[in-house]
Design brief:
The chain starts with a helix and ends with a helix. It has a 3-stranded antiparallel sheet. It has a 3-stranded antiparallel sheet with strand order 3-4-5, with no helix packed on it. A 3-stranded antiparallel sheet has the order 7-8-9, with helices on one face. β3 and β4 form a beta hairpin. The protein is elongated. It folds into 2 domains: 59 residues, no CATH class; 60 residues. The protein is built from 3 helices and 9 strands; from the N terminus they run αββββββαβββα. Helix content is 24%, strand content 32%. The chain is α+β, with helices and mostly antiparallel strands.
């Protein structure tokens, strides 16, 4: 799973999020450190509240929390979401624009971006896709 630090960097780089069922997120408050939440049809739902995007809590949630605004939480995109977002950014680049392979460090992602082939390495596939996506967002 993507680290909170990397997810924050993606958000700060302008990665937009429209919450969907089964998306993961974290609440960046000390009392929720290390906890990951998932939007689902039963207890945590994405919707609109007072005209703004919100995450609402229902049912048997262990603590009394009614809602949070989407901007107050950090989206933790899954590996396939990161790959899809990266592929969208790479449309029109030379082929193959994106490859993923194992390396001695975990994974290596090769990206064709603006007439260069760039390599990113990380222990986790989500992290390596996120590093490449972050590069495309910042350049």
């Amino acid at each position: 799973m993507l680290s909170l630090t990397t997810a924050k960097a993606l958000r700060e780089a302008g990665l937009a999020w429209t919450p969907q069922n089964l998306d993961f997120f974290a609440i960046p408050l000390p009392e929720f450190e290390g906890q990951v939440f998932a939007i689902n049809d039963m207890t945590i739902m994405a919707g609109t509240l007072y005209g703004e995007a919100a995450i609402t809590f229902h049912g048997s949630v262990e603590w009394a929390l009614d809602h949070l605004w989407v901007g107050e939480v950090i989206w933790l995109p899954r590996e396939e979401q990161l790959r899809e977002l990266l592929e969208e950014r790479l449309l029109g680049e030379q082929q193959p624009a994106l490859t993923l392979e194992t390396s001695r460090y975990g994974y290596r992602c090769m990206v064709a971006w603006r007439d260069e082939v760039l390599a990113f390495e990380a222990f986790d596939a989500s992290e390596v896709y996120a590093e490449a996506l972050l590069h495309t967002l910042l350049t």
